[in-house]
Specification:
21 helices, 5-stranded parallel beta sheet, 4-stranded mixed beta sheet, Rossmann fold, Ribosomal Protein S5, domain 2
């Protein structure tokens, strides 16, 4: 009869998880503790944490030669969530708990030296892996409960200490079943700014409503103080709440970092212009999602986009088109989702006042051209709405524009209604007008005869690329949805065209 005990956990492989068997074997000889199975430094250090946690939980750490194997051995493993399954495997192997008591159980958790169980990153990936395998009891750190509850039909058991796990497995302590209240039930949290606070800028206000309604990329150009950053923040707030499925995907990405708070609203990522390409796109020796993936189902805000390194900006082209980011390594390929809205701002020139009527520009024409040329044609082609802002006169900023109805709430209601129309129209994996392919544009859009003539004239005059041509139709469809129109009329197309005048 084999004296090897086995318990089940999972390895984090990018955005997914794979089942790992933690095997424990003990033999006579000089007391030692060895972990094999292609683990990193954090797993090797687990030996000290596990030894102290078992002893300080008033359990016996065997004085034998102990070998722990993490199988399959060829699979790279990292993280501290292996601590708890290693400890349980040792307790089962030393007959302090029965092997059959650990069957159909799944364990994750970092151990403190006193036996407390600390939260770990990637909990949704780990729990999903166990749930898909049909495992009945999933032991997780108590502090990870809110995130784990987002996984449907997962029978999780939140635990605080190693002693608690031991008593539950022995049948000497009852299991407390957590409430199935998820973060999706939380009310929408408003940002500090709203459309009601913005004086003037009617075209820009309209642009953020269109962008939010159709999930379109947006670029604001204008002098300092025109309100570009404020409008970008407001755009994130008029987006509709996350659906249950979107919430699961967003939290799944953010939970890869154990220190991330539980997400309850659409993400808003605003990396500084000094951020590296890896920080923006993702990667590293142990690949992690970058800002484009952390902005999944939300907004990626790049303030003063020309100030970012050219190579960093150009790296956005692939995720903007494919809605995913693929990170290749010598022995692995990891794909993260990246379906985000790009909202960017820029000044018209390095000093910021080119074309401004209130302050003189100090830049030469060469400096202005070099500055604006930092954004390549292919990148601009992927931006649906380009809007130029001018400064609002100071006397108008404090003007009382209060009304009985909130412009901000009206805009949010318009966006929700427009997105509902898109959902009913597509009834498929496509969720927004911006995601339509060529074939889907032909299938789902209907242009009036006047709109077709206007589009033909615009194509000749503006020398539109194929991508720009299709993006204009997508934006026009969003404007038609906001008007609750069944067809794209010439007025919808004309409004969409005014957002391509800068290309």
């Amino acid at each position: 009869m084999s004296n090897v005990s086995k318990v089940v956990t999972s390895a984090l492989i990018g955005f997914e998880g794979k089942i790992v068997e933690v095997e424990s074997d003990s033999t006579r000889g000089l007391p030692s503790f060895q972990i094999v199975g292609l683990g990193n430094k954090s797993i090797d250090e687990a030996k000290q944490r596990v030894r102290s946690a078992i002893s300080n939980s008033h359990l016996e750490f065997p004085t034998k030669h102990i070998t722990i194997n993490l199988a399959p051995a060829e699979l790279p493993k990292h993280g501290t969530h292996y601590d708890l399954p290693i400890a349980i495997a040792i307790l089962a192997n030393s007959s302090q708990i029965r092997q059959e008591d650990t069957e159909n159980c799944f364990f994750v958790g970092e151990l403190a030296l006193d036996g407390a169980i600390r939260p770990v990153g990637g909990i949704i990936n780990l729990v999903e892996t166990a749930q898909k395998q049909g495992i009945e009891r999933i032991f997780i750190p108590k502090e990870n409960t809110d995130e784990a509850l987002l996984v449907p039909e997962a029978n999780i058991i939140p635990v605080s200490t190693l002693s608690e796990v031991f008593l539950i497995l022995k049948g000497e302590q009852r299991v407390s079943v957590p409430s199935k209240q998820t973060a999706s039930k939380k009310s929408h949290q408003k940002s500090k700014a709203s459309l009601d606070d913005v004086a003037g800028q009617e075209v820009a206000k309209r642009a953020i409503i269109i962008a939010a309604a159709g999930h379109h990329n947006l670029l604001f150009s204008g002098p300092p103080g025109a309100g570009k950053t404020m409008l970008a923040t407001i755009l994130a707030d008029i987006l509709p709440p996350l659906t249950d499925q979107e919430l699961l995907e967003v939290v799944k990405l953010h939970s890869l970092n154990a220190s991330s708070p539980l997400i309850s609203r659409r993400p808003f990522q605003a990396p500084h212009h000094t951020a590296s390409r890896t920080a923006l796109i993702g990667g590293g020796s142990q690949p992690q999602p970058g800002a484009v993936s952390l902005a999944h189902h939300g907004v990626l805000f790049l303030d003063e986009i020309p100030e970012y390194p050219r190579s960093t900006i150009e790296a956005l082209r692939q995720p903007l088109e494919d809605k995913t980011v693929t990170i290749d390594r010598a022995k692995s390929r990891i794909t993260y989702p990246a379906d985000f809205m790009l909202v960017a701002t820029m000044n018209p020139c390095p000093c910021g006042y080119y074309g401004d009527t209130t302050q003189d520009c100090t830049c030469t024409i060469t400096q202005v051209n070099n500055y604006t040329n930092r954004l390549s044609g292919p990148l601009l082609d992927r931006i649906d709405l380009l809007t130029t802002l001018t400064k609002t006169p100071n006397k108008d900023i404090l003007q009382n524009t209060a009304s009985s109805t909130s412009r901000h709430d009206q805009a949010r209601h318009q966006v929700i209604i427009a997105r509902k129309r898109q959902e009913e129209r597509f009834n498929s994996s496509i969720k927004h007008n911006s995601g339509m392919s060529n074939a889907e544009i032909k299938k789902f859009t209907s242009l009036s005869n006047d709109a077709k003539k206007l589009l033909q004239q615009a194509e000749q005059r503006l020398r539109l690329s194929a991508r720009s041509y299709l993006k204009i139709i997508k934006v026009a469809q969003t404007i038609a949805d906001l008007d609750e129109s069944a067809h794209i009329d010439s007025k919808h197309l004309a409004e969409a065209l005014q957002y391509r005048q800068n290309t």
